[in-house]
Amino acid sequence: MSRRQQARVAVIGTGSWGTTFGKILADGGASVTMWARREEVAREISRSHRNSDYLPGVTLPQNLSATSDLRAALAGASQVFVAVPSQTLRENLLAIRPLLGADAIVVSLMKGVEKGTGLRMSEVIVESLEIDPGRVAVASGPNLALEIAREQPTAAVVSSSRLETAQAVAMLARNSYFRTFVNTDVIGTEFGGVLKNLIAVAIGIVDGVGYGENTKASIITRGLVEMTDFAVARGAKAETLSGLAGLGDLIATCQSPLSRNNTAGRLLGQGYSFGAVVKQMQQTAEGLASVAPVLELAREIGVEMPIVQQVKQVLDGTLDPKDIAPHLTTDSDEPQGERTSDDSETTSGGPLRRTFKRAFDQLRNGRGSAVGDRP
């Protein structure tokens, strides 16, 4: 047997992304046990190999099962993938902690910031489980769950402060339709996944209002600048935001009706209140919960985020969606220079051209071994 075929892994959470990632791992050869909060969901996954609530029409692999018994799900797992709503992570970790294997790797599949603390999901995991950060990894990228569950080819990046940990996770999280890269920039990888959700909400708002492609292209372009400014100020590498966890995820999330954040924004743009949007959404749109804590972090580090600020005003009901113009990033009538990356950028070719080229190169051919490369 190969390493992947021998691996025993657990996935905590049976929403659309958790179930899809379980399928990715099982299709790669691992033996996967998922933990479901509801017994009926666990029963359907194990007996019918379906999760009709979240992945209608998708048949799950035979080597993927589910249980509502957390101890049983975690027993013998060498890697534990966590896919629960970001604001419930800490309480779930309290239950996981006494059951976690001494050497088990914990992988965050979540894209959010904890309210109150402003901590990234990997930081919550390290703090709550009291484990070495080198045992923690995060996975991110242009990963719309239903497309991947239908085995449409895509790529993702796994990041850990310890390269060997990222490589170990990437060895399992890869198959014929899912290609995995690695890096050690956990900050950039996580904030890319968090911040693109906020820009996707803005895209949904203007889409719901009825604005066209020029407006959306302006928001995406300027949104990438905001994302990069923020992430770099928090210690990330700018090139990570040009990769799968930044630009790649931004494109997919902003343009697809499968995106929960895009859908939430579209409802806001159509005139629904924040409360009504939350009530209509059957799944969590992490971007809605992350707006306030991200803006608080931005204020602490002195980074301006006009797009995200206007999204918050729409959420608060203080800005009419039709008045949103987040690509107009200055109150001054004086012409402003277009800065498309940080001022210290000195390499040749133009930052936006390099950004797109790098992302497309990664998706097209990977520039070598997917597991060994560092995007």
From TrEMBL:
Domain Glycerol-3-phosphate dehydrogenase NAD-dependent C-terminal: 185-324
KW Amino-acid biosynthesis (keyword) present: no
Keyword tRNA-binding included in the entry's annotation: no
Residue ranges of the region described as Disordered: 320-375
EC number: 1.1.1.94
Catalytic activity: sn-glycerol 3-phosphate + NAD(+) = dihydroxyacetone phosphate + NADH + H(+); sn-glycerol 3-phosphate + NADP(+) = dihydroxyacetone phosphate + NADPH + H(+)
Chief localisation class: cytoplasm
GO molecular function annotations of the record: glycerol-3-phosphate dehydrogenase (NAD+) activity; glycerol-3-phosphate dehydrogenase (NADP+) activity; NAD binding
GO biological process: carbohydrate metabolic process; glycerol-3-phosphate biosynthetic process; glycerol-3-phosphate catabolic process; glycerophospholipid metabolic process; phospholipid biosynthetic process
Name of the top EC class for this enzyme: oxidoreductase
Compartmental location: Cytoplasm
Residues reported to bind NAD(+): 13-18, 145, 260
Keyword annotations from UniProtKB, A to Z: Cytoplasm, Lipid biosynthesis, Lipid metabolism, NAD, NADP, Nucleotide-binding, Oxidoreductase, Phospholipid biosynthesis, Phospholipid metabolism
Residues annotated as the enzyme's active site: 196
Pathway noted in the entry: Membrane lipid metabolism; glycerophospholipid metabolism
InterPro entries tied to this protein: 6-PGluconate_DH-like_C_sf, 6PGD_dom2, G3P_DH_NAD-dep, G3P_DH_NAD-dep_C, G3P_DH_NAD-dep_N, NAD(P)-bd_dom_sf
Residues given in the record as sn-glycerol 3-phosphate binding sites: 111, 141, 196, 249, 259-261
Domain of life: Bacteria
Binding, NADPH: 16-17, 37-38, 54, 111, 145, 260, 286
Gene Ontology cellular-component terms listed: cytosol
Family assignment from sequence similarity: Belongs to the NAD-dependent glycerol-3-phosphate dehydrogenase family.
Biological role stated in the UniProt entry: Catalyzes the reduction of the glycolytic intermediate dihydroxyacetone phosphate (DHAP) to sn-glycerol 3-phosphate (G3P), the key precursor for phospholipid synthesis.
Name of the protein described by the UniProt record: Glycerol-3-phosphate dehydrogenase [NAD(P)+]
Protein encoded by which gene: gpsA
